[in-house]
Amino acid sequence: MKLISKAITILSLTLAISPFSFATEQCNNILDFEAKKLRSSQTVNFCEQYKNKVLLVVNTASECGFTPQFKELEAMYKKYKDQGLEIVGFPSDSFFQEHDDEKETADVCYINYGVTFTMLSPSKVRGSDANAFYKQLEAQADRSVKWNFFKYLIDKNGKVVDSWNSREKPLGGELEKAVVAQLAK
Description:
By secondary structure, the protein is of the alpha/beta class. It contains 6 helices and 7 strands. It has helices at 2-26, 46-50, 69-80, 102-112, 132-141, 174-184, and strands at residues 34-36, 43-45, 54-60, 85-91, 118-119, 151-154, 160-164. The strands form 2 sheets. The protein has a 5-stranded mixed beta sheet, with helices on both faces. Strands 1-2 form a two-stranded antiparallel ribbon. 32% of the residues are buried. The model is unreliable at 7-24 (pLDDT under 50).
């Protein structure tokens, strides 16, 4: 009887602990984030969506001089998505160049530029008001967002490997070379 009691206790403890350790193994700290998609009630769970993917994160603004980069970001996404690249856009008014109306932001992204990669609801990306994901990004990269269309590259293990300023175009330069190198790993 004592043996059965011990076995039940061990099994109970194993079952109680397993989900927590499994969840911890599943998600890198930086990917432990969830946000609402742009102009949608759906949310994106970064752990589920981007685990084992190369992730390019870009803070966007639909009224910025760099807004035309949406075209190249979309081209990059189409070119590399089947190899494991994901791109996430974080619309933000942190630099006062984003529409106040989420519908207008969505129109710029989806209608004007035909964006198909994930775009999230607007949020802050700098300072003490920055969303939790950007706070972790900046801490890992040891480099803060300087302007709209600042880019961070996260490897398949959920680690920030590099970042680029707004002037770095998505295609034909160092950013694309870094994406290709990460996809090859």
